[in-house]
Amino acid sequence: MNKPLDIDKVQASGQVTDASLRNEPLPPPLPPTPLLERCHNIADLREAAKKRLPRCVFEFFDRGSEDEFSLRGNREAFQKLKLRNKVMVDVSKRDPSTMLFGKPLSFPLVIAPTGVAGVCWYNGEVELARAAAKAGVPFTLATPSVTSIEQIAAVEGGRKFFQLYMWRERELSHALVKRARDAGFEALMLTADTAVPPIREYNRRNGFSMPFVPNFTALLDMSLHPSWLASVMGRYYMNGGLPQLAHFPKDKAGSGGVAQPQKSVVPNFRGDNLTWDDIRRLRDIWKGPLLLKGVHLAEDAARAVQEGCDGIIISNHGGRNLDTAVASLDVLPEITAEVGGKTTIIVDSGVRRGGDIVKALALGANVVLSGRPTLYGTSVAGEAGAAHALRILKNEFETVMGFTGCQKVGDIGEKTIWREK
Ligand SMILES: Cc1cc2nc3c(=O)[nH]c(=O)nc-3n(C[C@H](O)[C@H](O)[C@H](O)COP(=O)(O)O)c2cc1C
To answer: Using one digit for the tens of pLDDT, what is the confidence trace for 246-284?
Structure first.
């Protein structure tokens, strides 16, 4: 295993290798591998990920909760909304970049927090963070990640956000926030839509749990995917042991599992007593941008602004929590009417095409979060795969900007779309 870089020693020796410390631009994103070259869109990446991953891991990433109405509804909401051509505009110099919290993004997308992303590829969360940094979009580390805050902070360059699940044990959650702050993370995303553990029966059937305590089905499943088994689990095993939840205290992290629908990831850690008081307490610890994730009601959005949040994320958790929850896109107009211009509006759940980003922006979002697309990419080829997913989405976004006559992101608006009245 590579030894971590002691940056002080390297600096003292005059051989600073971190480009960001030398104020140099990061290298370009990794080019596609031959397999990636055959993946022309996110759906192709999904298919490739399905082949590479054991079923238990793929379904954990890919599926929703209960009857998966929300999962399907997310795509239907995007399909329902139509785009309009805008003609006779010079779009030869389209600019997909935008600003978020006073800093540039290469296009209006942030990588969503996706817990346990490190099991799709060896060091998958680091690979994903590297791809995001080189592509010029922020990466969000999830509380239930297998990579620690400090390991992600060591990834060269890029903007890093931290997602927080607030446990009943407030002091433990606040300690994580302080670690993220001290490690230089830029924004804090408080997830509020997971008051109770979601029901995902397939995890139980598949025997998927974290930490890994695979049942016979899961063992068989994994043994049928020897390349994943060797290159992911084998490498973890050789380099210190199977992946663990990095932010859960060791003595408690052993007793739970994402496979158990009526329990939280770790049973002793519940987040069912989160209230607005917590925002006030967080504001004392966290001075950077604070975002509330999982908002569906205009009144909650307004209250978040009033309580000092810098942004809201309209989300149904990618259809993974409350089944039949409304699609984010369907409540976006009323939330924009309430808080548009007063706060940063972020939307997620179901973005699979660059045109989806245009639609979200047309209805008032500033940026979108994207979860599964880069997970599929990372599952197929680590950093190169995540880079490929981002390249696909950005290229599609620029293409739709061209068709809809938008020279810059600010040109995307109500006129860009058509809705049935
Ligand atoms: C495998 C997986 C794990 C996730 N883990 C978290 C998490 O730990 N915290 C969180 O706030 N959201 C989590 N999410 C939800 C995402 O942040 C995001 O809301 C969702 O993926 C967006 O939908 P999309 O996948 O269709 O882009 C997870 C999503 C996936 C797919």
So the answer is: 998 875 544 333 433 334 444 456 789 999 999 999 999
Angle, CA 246 vertex, CA 390 and CA 250 arms, to 5°: 165
| Ligand 1 atom at shortest distance from the alpha carbon of 117 | 1
**Of residues 220, 222, 217, the one with CA closest to residue 203:** 217
So where are the chain's domains? Answer: 37-201+266-418
Q: How far is the CA of 105 from the centre of ligand 1 (A)?
A: 21
Cα 287 to ligand 1 centre (Å):
25
Nearest CA to ligand 1 atom 29: 114
Contact between 251 and 194 (Cβ < 8 Å): no
Preceding amide of 31 cis, omega within 30: no
Query: Can you list the positions of beta strands (E) in 78-214?
Result: 82-83, 98-100, 103-105, 109-111, 139-141, 160-164, 187-191
Catalytic residue among 174, 225, 317, 388: 317
Q: What is the pLDDT of residues 330-361, one digit of tens each?
A: 999 999 999 999 999 999 999 999 999 999 99
For ligand 1, say whether the CB of 318 is within 6 Å of any of its atoms.
yes
Structure tokens at 30: 């990794």
Q: Catalytic residue at 247? A: no
337 token code pair: 């009417």
Q: Which fold has domain 37-201+266-418?
A: TIM Barrel (3.20.20)
- The closest residue, in CA terms, to atom 2 on ligand 1 is 114
Task: State whether the beta carbon of 138 lies less than 6 angstroms from ligand 1.
Answer: no
How confident is the model over 92-127, as pLDDT tens digits?
999 999 999 999 999 999 999 999 999 999 999 999
Best probe residue, ligand 1, of 317, 376, 379 (max atoms within 8 Å of C-beta): 317
Query: Between 19 and 133, where is the model more confident?
Result: 133
Span from the CA of 115 to the centroid of ligand 1 (angstroms): 7
Give, for 204, the enclosing helix (H) or strand (E): helix 201-206
Beta bridge partners of 162: 141, 188
Of 16-25, 309-318, 408-417, the range with the lowest mean pLDDT is 16-25
CA distance linking residue 231 with residue 225, whole number of Å: 10
Name the helix (H) or strand (E) containing 35.
helix 34-37
Cα–Cα dist 174/151, whole Å: 19
User: How many residues appear in the chain?
Assistant: 421
Question: How does pLDDT run across 49-60, given as a tens digit for each residue?
Answer: 999 999 999 999
